[in-house]
Specification:
The complex is a heterodimer.
Chain A: H1 2-27, E1 43-49, H2 56-64, E2 71-78, H3 84-92, E3 94-96, E4 111-117, E5 123-128, H4 133-143, E6 148-152, E7 156-158, H5 162-169, E8 175-184, E9 188-189, E10 196-197, H6 203-225, E11 236-240, H7 241-246, H8 256-270, E12 278-289, H9 295-315, H10 326-342, H11 345-356, H12 361-388, H13 398-410, H14 415-429, H15 447-453
Parallel strand pairs in A: 1-2, 1-6, 2-5, 8-12
Antiparallel strand pairs in A: 3-4, 4-5, 6-11, 7-12, 8-11, 9-10
Chain B: H1 2-35, E1 73-77, E2 79-81, E3 101-103, H2 104-116, E4 120-121, H3 124-131, E5 141-148, H4 151-163, E6 168-172, H5 194-199, E7 204-208, H6 223-226, H7 229-242, E8 249-251, H8 259-267, E9 272-274, E10 293-294, H9 301-308
Parallel strand pairs in B: 1-5, 1-10, 2-3, 4-5, 5-6, 6-7, 8-9
Classes of the chains: A alpha/beta, B alpha/beta.
């Protein structure tokens, strides 16, 4: 009986993997130049920052180099206890301003002061009491002046053309929110204007580089087509301001990015004004984020993600299908919830079945082979598709990637099972105390800008 | 544009090709694993009609009154295993071989003896006619039967029967038959696979030994006499379906049956039923209580001769 259930689930799993492999392969054409429309829609970038003194300048540098005019950037200092505010003061020449007024629609912790940069008049800093990331985003939302709101992590650097890509995408009136493509900073070298992918990096980072590329170029791309974007990554997303207000801003939870995405889905499904609207994914809107460099940090990050994920599933449990729509619910429950873990399951099954039932080990080996085969093929398709988007590994780097793909499929990938299982267990263990976990902000200077400074 | 499409198609083709290859590598094993511990379906058949035609041919013997048999012996075997393949679980605690196992070496000797002494094996139909006194048979006639349907019958017994131009009857527990063939493991309780049935269809007549009622209740009463008659009927009907409607003969597990059972055998159309009472068979023997002599492990050839009435 267990075997039958496993096999049925496995068939579902295979089906999803097939879609993820084949759809992007046929859908993605050769790289198209990002169009620069004559009409630039106004964009407000909100950057919540809590103890980000070491990385926030990278983020600022990315914003400074933006090839776009009609934008403003709002750094929200969420009661940092380090020098974040001072660093911004020094580099932006801040001055208190009274021109920014809140709408007063979304509650948040008290704002202490609002500053404007003398050097770049379109960059503001909102200094507020600590309230967590969601609260900082809410505070920022209160002060935005433009039509489109982009949320950006303080450890992430926007590609200079990304706002143009967002501008093009939001030309379509149906689009109410969109996710950008997040890449790993450590996987690139050279100029911010012309980053080059490299692969001579630590295995743990290689794993994340591949994982991000697969998640965005295969999974998000496919989900966008099937109208089932279940999470717009907190690192880089874009929303119509009106929608943010209509969903009453962010919920104070660690998984605020998934939460806001599902709230937008619910808005579309339940509010007549949003009847024909949808979410999308913009692969040309790129930002580079720093990933954890050691196991401990990666563990913390992924446990946080999993807790956030479980929390969202719980929070929206009554809304699935009817209020969230079929596609996102289906993908969330089956693809994310089930197959997020089942991917590593066959591997775990081998020792277990060998222990209890020696006759079934061939079956376990079969499941493992199929899962590994699909993982390897996804890795290869990821390379093909990302190449079409202009991420081209040099002749020297490519063999490293190709060699790493099968290795990763049977090693690093299994970490996922650990994170998912532990995260879920920890969520239930201390359900009420987890929400205080904060971003650690102990990251090193970004490789990308270090090179540039030379 | 065209290059990309060509690339995509090639890529997809290779992907699907490799995927099918992997699937085909494991398909059999997965199917088998799914079938494990599953009984043969009650509504499926072994598809044996075509290769069982031979059992309907009735030999006619031109015999002088002196050559006619007045009584014959029916032998009963279960498992036949070569001595060097015996494993721990083939022995009782006191070190003797489990009573249902006959060594292959002994079996070969017994068959050789039958052959050398000009014995012929009878089909069930010929036996029935003899009992009903409608067919004359030679004195040196014998009927070989094997109970339960163990895989060793297919591997060890069938070739020996063929060699001597003998045939036998196998009373199969039809629910235990495996849909998928597996490697022969003498150490295990391994029953025929459907493939086995087809492979030995030329030397064995297959008859019912119940579908899944070769069991005892908690108080050790055999299912056949202990269970409600309706359940027994369902079980036997399933075995008949598995055997393509074949209901010439029935052998009760443990030789246990009662009056109610006997009525049921008749109602289900069985023409004859076998017991485990050791005796000879004569014209006029109760055709629903046919005696059989069991062969035990390590029987000497002299003991065997006595059993078959060879002086």
């Amino acid at each position: 009986m267990i075997l039958k259930i496993t096999l049925v689930l496995f068939v579902f799993f295979i089906f999803f993997q097939f879609v993820y492999i084949l759809y992007p392969l046929y859908a993605v054409k050769e790289k198209e130049k990002i169009k620069k429309l004559g009409n630039e829609k106004g964009v407000s970038i909100i950057i919540p920052a809590y103890n980000e003194e070491k990385v926030i300048l990278n983020c600022l540098e990315g914003i400074r180099q933006l090839d776009y005019h009609n934008y403003e950037a709002l750094f929200v200092n969420d009661g940092s206890t380090d020098q974040t505010l001072d660093v911004l003061h020094t580099h932006l020449d801040l001055q208190v301003t009274s021109t920014k007024l809140p709408t007063g629609k979304i509650p948040h912790e008290e704002v202490k002061e609002i500053y404007q940069s003398n050097l770049y008049p379109n960059i503001y800093v909102i200094d507020k009491k600590n309230g967590g990331k969601a609260d900082a985003l809410n505070a920022g939302t209160e002060y935005v002046a433009k039509e489109i709101v982009v949320t950006l992590d303080a450890d992430s650097i926007m590609d200079s053309m990304s706002l143009h890509a967002i501008n093009v995408s939001f030309e379509n009136k149906e689009i109410v929110a969109a996710g950008g493509l997040v890449q790993i900073q450590q996987g690139y070298t050279g100029d911010l204007q012309k980053p080059n992918p490299i692969f001579s990096i630590k295995g743990l980072i290689r794993h994340q580089v591949l994982q991000y590329m697969t998640a965005f170029y295969l999974h998000k791309l496919t989900q966008a087509k099937l109208n089932s974007i279940t999470v717009i990554a907190g690192a880089f997303g874009a929303f119509r301001k009106k929608a943010l207000f209509d969903v009453d801003g962010y919920r104070r939870t660690v998984g605020e990015d998934m939460d806001i995405t599902l709230k937008v889905h619910r808005l579309i499904k339940t509010n007549k004004n949003y009847k024909n609207n949808r979410l999308t994914f913009i692969p040309q809107a790129i930002c580079y984020t720093e990933c954890p460099e050691n196991f401990r940090e990666l563990y913390n990050q992924r446990i946080r993600w999993q807790k956030a994920f479980v929390d969202c599933i719980f929070h929206f449990r009554k809304s699935f299908f009817r209020k969230l729509g079929f596609s996102p619910s289906f993908f969330l429950l089956f693809d994310s919830l089930f197959f997020g873990t089942i991917n590593a399951y066959p591997t775990i099954l081998i020792p277990v079945t060998l222990l209890f039932n020696q006759d079934n080990y061939i079956v376990a080996a079969g499941l493992f082979s199929v899962a590994t085969f699909l993982a390897i093929y996804q890795g290869i398709v990821t390379l093909v598709v990302s190449r079409r988007f202009g991420i081209i590994y040099s002749k020297k780097q490519l063999p490293r990637v190709l060699f790493f793909i099968p290795l990763e499929a049977i090693s690093y990938r299994l970490l996922g099972l650990l994170f998912v299982t532990t995260g879920t267990l920890l969520y239930f263990k201390n359900k009420n105390s987890w929400y205080v976990s904060k971003r650690v902000g102990t990251k090193e200077q970004a490789l990308l800008l270090e090179k540039k400074a030379v | 544009m065209k290059r990309r499409l060509l690339f995509n198609l090639t890529f997809t083709a290779i992907f699907l090709g490799l995927f099918s290859l992997i699937i085909s590598l494991f398909y059999q094993d997965v199917a088998r694993a799914l079938d494990q511990n599953e009984f043969f379906p009650t509504n499926k058949t072994f598809d044996l009609q075509a290769c069982q035609q031979w059992r309907n041919e009735i030999s006619s013997f031109d015999l002088t009154p002196k050559e006619k048999a007045t009584e014959i012996t029916i032998l009963m075997y279960h498992r036949v295993i070569p001595e060097d393949k015996l494993e721990d679980n083939h022995f009782e605690q006191d070190g003797s071989i489990v009573s249902t196992i006959v060594l292959k070496e002994d079996f070969e000797e017994q068959m050789q003896l039958l052959h050398d002494n000009g014995y012929i094996t009878l089909t069930l139909e010929e036996l029935a006619l003899f009992i009903k006194n409608e067919l004359d048979i030679p004195k040196r006639s014998i009927v070989l039967t094997f109970d339960d349907g163990f895989k060793d019958n297919a591997i060890e017994v069938a070739p020996i029967l063929r060699e001597h131009h003998f045939h036998a009857t196998s009373f199969v527990i039809t629910g235990a038959v495996n849909k998928y063939d597996a490697t022969y493991e003498p150490g295990e309780y391994q029953y025929f696979s459907v493939d086995d049935l087809h492979n030995i269809c030329d030397v064995f007549e297959f008859e019912s030994h119940t579908y899944n009622f070769h069991k005892r209740m908690e108080d050790h009463t055999p299912y056949l006499t202990g269970k409600p008659i309706e359940e027994v009927r369902e079980d036997l009907e399933a075995s008949i379906i598995n055997l393509n409607g074949q209901n010439q003969a029935f052998a009760s597990p443990y030789g246990a049956f009662n009056e109610e059972n006997l009525a049921l055998f008749k109602e289900l159309g069985f023409n004859m039923a076998f017991t485990v009472v050791p005796d000879t068979v004569k014209p006029g023997t109760d055709i629903y209580q046919i005696p059989r002599k069991e062969i035990y492990p390590r029987e000497t050839i002299e003991e065997f001769k006595v059993k078959i009435g060879l002086k």
